[in-house]
Amino acid sequence: MSEKIKYCVVDAGNTRVKVVDFENDEIVGHQQIALEDLEKIKLVLSAKKLTTSILSSVLDKEKLKWVSDLLEPNVVLSNQTPLPISIDAYETPNTLGADRIANAVAAHYYSNTDHALVIDIGTCIKFDLVLKDKYQGGSIAPGYAMRLKAMHEFTGALPLLELEDVTPLIGRTTKKAMLSGVINGIQAEIEGFIASYTQQYQPLTIFLTGGDHKRFDKELKNSIFAEDNLTVKGLHIILKYNV
């Protein structure tokens, strides 16, 4: 029986820290810790010091150093990190988010075609294209919460809304009209982008991920692969590539 190799992936975002444990290529543990819960972060990360690990972060330098000192990771992901794909086509690699890098790496690794497209639906909606082993770039747009908040903050009368399970096409109240504009608008936006990409790049494997992707995956075609853990799997691939 082959030896099980343990890896740890830490993804430090703006509001929470994800800590994901792998044995070989299988996820065996998953924690999400609120960023303000410093004691729990300290407890969890200190216990991972001896594990082969990677840190991905959008934190400022001070917080990044604090997390890095706790974990002592083998790899801190940046645009300088050696990758199994090229990002040379991107004109501003120093501004390229770690999540977009990780998603592109995972899409390339798991794609069953030469080309891959990632749709990441979260705070922002991001499209990222990989042609063979070369990352090309994509697009970034506001997510649903940001759109609802913008309508409230930039007008005098529109309320701040939460999403509902059912969103009609025709809103017969102002509230329902706002929800229709956001949710059905995002749906049409995604479908339009997919149509444009598939027309220009064939064959193309499409991946759907992000914290809000489940609001939309049922409406999209079955040929799209929904994957909750695409980003952390990409980080895991990058870690193995570097150790």
UniProtKB/TrEMBL annotation:
Q: Where in the cell is it found?
A: Cytoplasm
The positions annotated for binding K(+) are 120
Instruction: Enumerate the CDD domains for this protein.
Output: ASKHA_NBD_PanK-III
Required cofactor names: K(+); NH4(+)
SUPFAM superfamilies on file = Actin-like ATPase domain
* Keyword Cytoplasm carried by entry: yes
Q: What is this protein called?
A: Type III pantothenate kinase
What pathway, per the record?
Cofactor biosynthesis; coenzyme A biosynthesis; CoA from (R)-pantothenate: step 1/5
User: Does rRNA-binding show up as a keyword for this record?
Assistant: no
The protein's role, per its UniProt record: Catalyzes the phosphorylation of pantothenate (Pan), the first step in CoA biosynthesis.
Classification via InterPro entries: ATPase_NBD (IPR043129), Type_III_PanK (IPR004619)
Q: Which family does it belong to?
A: Belongs to the type III pantothenate kinase family.
Catalytic reaction(s) noted: (R)-pantothenate + ATP = (R)-4'-phosphopantothenate + ADP + H(+)
